Amino acid sequence: MVDQRIECLDCGHVTSYHPMELACPACGSTWREARYDLDDAAARWKRERLSRPPTIWRYKELLPTSPLPLTMQLGEGGTPLIHASKLGSMIGLPHLYLKDERQNPTISFKDRQAAVNAAALLDAGIHEAVVASTGNVAISYSAYCARAGIKLWAFITSLVPAVKMHEIALFGTRMVKVTGTYDQAKRLAAEFADTRGLFLDRGARNIATIEAMKTMAFEIAEQLPHFLGSADHEPWFAPDWYIQAVSGGMGPIGVLKGFQELKAMGFTTKLPAIGAIQTDGCSPMVKAWKAGKSEPIPVEHPRTLISTLTTGNPGRSYTLLRERIMEGPGGAMESVTDEEAVRSMVILARTEGLSIEPAAAVALAGTMKLANEGIIPSDAVVVVNCSGHTIPIEHSQIPASWSSEVDMDTPEALDRPQEGLLAALTQLDQRRTKEILIVDDHAEARLLLQRILLSQGTYLIREAGSGPEALAEAKRNPPDLILLDLMMPEMDGFAVIDKLKEESSTAAIPIIVITAKTLTSEEEVLLEGQISRTITKGDLLDEELLDEVKRNVEDENP
Fold first, then answer.
1. Considering the entire predicted model, what is its pTM?
2. Based on the domain organization, do 308 and 358 belong to the same domain?
3. Which residues of the chain have pLDDT under 50?
4. Domain boundary residue among 168, 186, 206?
């Protein structure tokens, strides 16, 4: 740790850091930030950083407290950056990367926050703390407080999945379940902490929390050169966009501060644009952003199954994030539905083999939306925070149609095991196998569609990687359905449709257009009456798409 000072954002007064000092002694403001000798930190990093383990303490000079003792560390930080090449190719972002925060000790990026705060509490001789949480913060704090011998009180809402409650209790945390909103749980936690004189993590107003979050920026910038071609990995690279799902907003505030410090130290040359994504059912930041307001538009009753994103009133953290985005790198705030988040979760699992939590899927769905709208250009280097693993996903978010059942307990199966098994398997598809031709110039997109279709039924899948190849395949053996991409070189989807309609043997084949392109009104007119439906690539797992496929290929006479 280098010398640091704490500066008030309202009056500029400077003090030293102590976790129990909640406000500026000069003006009473609770909004303050850590400042460092960046030249000294840069010199030390260049001398010593590469010899240190890849944890958050690798960057200890720019943290407000000494590292946790080695015997209390859990391997926090140092999570990998993963190139999502298949998904990126499919949605038109070939330089799409995922910061895999699932690989933190309690499978959440909140472990950074808990580790730095636990270290600060130990430094100050504090052995009792309070948090309010929608799940992940309480789990992270519970683990680190158990490790450090700190008594923890966790105020959580009744919406937190039972599996998370069980884990919080497992660590010995005193859990207080609040039947109400997350904002109400935060107020109760604050009153409890104030009454007892205990430490409370106050989110974006908590200095150690913001400082912990910026370690993601340091790691991303150090990791990107391995993918982008810098031989000596100096200078580091900042992405063009950093995207995260937000509830209170402290993550992007901390990450942006980290990139600002890297730029000031000469390690990077730019700042990333920030994408802050919320759910439609709780989007106080997005509503205010789109209305051009400097303060959030509170949501009193969040309506989302994704409980980790239910901060109805983020307060000044939104104002601070908005100011820094507008004054610096730019960016966007967007919202997505719960259904869009679940679709993106499944798309990622099926293309890249990564299972993420619903909140992380919100960030991914928002990335797809911003790319589809052209806000994120196709050549941008984009990093998405995959904040945790999908253990707490609600069963109500997974459609029953995504699985089939074979009953082996029937009398017939028990009497004749082998015959019963064959009969049960036969029941899964008693109709004639239908042929579907997938036309897309990206192999990854064709593979994803094939996986989706084969998970829902038994189809004979054929593929074509270009317009001419598709026409030749369709004429040789007309399929029952064509899934057609519009944006292809040499011959685009519009030309393919025209050619198919000219031939009597192919004119009646139903076509579902699958595209990442936002159609103009003129293009919509061109497609009218020629196709069955247009589906955006970000909506590939929409049940409506699967229903449309079944409607077009279903044989009424099995």
1. 0.81
2. yes
3. 231, 233, 392-398, 400-406, 424-431, 556-558
4. 206
Among 339, 248, 343, residue whose Cα is nearest residue 298: 248
What's the CA gap between 309 and 388, in Å, rounded? 13
Identify whether 230 is part of a domain: yes
pLDDT recorded at residue 395: 46
Residues 420 and 384 in one domain: no
- Same domain? For 508 and 460 the reply is yes
Q: What total of structural domains would you count in the chain?
A: 4
CB atoms within 10 A of CB 415: 9
Tell me, yes or no, whether 59 lies in a domain: no
pLDDT exceeding 70 applies to what percent of the chain? 88
Confidence (pLDDT) at 403: 45
Task: For 510-543, write each residue's pLDDT tens digit.
Answer: 999 988 777 888 888 889 889 988 887 665 555 6
Tracing tokens 């910061």 back to the chain, one arrives at 99
Q: What CATH number is associated with residue 120?
A: 3.40.50.1100
| 131 phi/psi in degrees, rounded to 5 | -135, 150
Average pLDDT, the chain: 88
Q: Taking a C-beta distance cutoff of 8 angstroms, is the pair 437, 470 a contact? A: yes
- How far is the CA of 254 from the CAs of 195, 251, 291, 500, in angstroms? 29, 5, 25, 54
Residue range of the domain that includes 186: 111-206
Q: What is the 3-state secondary structure (H, E, C) of 132-182?
A: EECCHHHHHHHHHHHHHCCEEEEEEECCCCHHHHHHHHHCCCEEEEECCCH
Segment 27-34 long-range contacts (CB within 8 Å, at least 24 positions apart): 30/202, 30/205, 31/205, 31/316, 31/320, 32/6, 32/7, 32/8, 32/207, 33/6, 33/7, 33/9, 33/207, 33/210, 33/257, 34/4, 34/5, 34/6, 34/7, 34/64, 34/207, 34/210, 34/211
